[in-house]
Amino acid sequence: MAASGPDELLGALYREHGDALLRYVRHLTRDAGHVEDVVQEAMVRAWQRPTVLVREPDAARAWLFTVARNLVVDDARSARNRREHHTDQSVDRIEADRTDAVLDRIVVADALASLSSEHRRVVVDAYWLGHTVPEIARRHDIPEGTVKSRLHYGLRALRLALQERGVTR
């Protein structure tokens, strides 16, 4: 390993010990994706400390294998490794977070509950069930003008109830 600079030293080091280091790390981790990361990190650390390897060329292999083993052990002990589980299966589908929609429904349901039953009935019939004013009037056996009036005052009360719950425009 008679090389002049750190880059040449790293190239010579990899040519001399790279294959054996890959096999060693593969044996330790049994995770093909992680093997190359560990070997690369060991080589980066060797590149950062070329004086250690130049002073003791015979110890370079032992140093690389020790660094690789320590990297594997550190990763195994890490919090990431305890919480994450690798799988070869792809995710079937990704669903959007529905938390905001659920919270909105809870707030609206609570605000609707604060309305009088007459106002709540016409608001739900019109805006959630999609019925027209004449349909609502027939369903509840009330005049169309009363439906319009209850819709107007029901929506006004609903707007106030939502504002009291922190919903703003």
Automatic annotation (TrEMBL):
The keyword Endoplasmic reticulum does not apply. Pfam families: Sigma70_r2, Sigma70_r4. CDD domains: Sigma70_r4. It comes from the Bacteria. InterPro entries: RNA_pol_sigma-70-like, RNA_pol_sigma-70_dom, RNA_pol_sigma70_ECF_CS, RNA_pol_sigma70_r2, RNA_pol_sigma70_r4, RNA_pol_sigma_r2, RNA_pol_sigma_r3/r4-like, WH-like_DNA-bd_sf. SUPFAM superfamilies: Sigma2 domain of RNA polymerase sigma factors (SSF88946), Sigma3 and sigma4 domains of RNA polymerase sigma factors (SSF88659). Residues 13-80, 111-159 form the RNA polymerase sigma-70 region domain. Keywords: DNA-binding, Sigma factor, Transcription, Transcription regulation. This is RNA polymerase sigma factor.
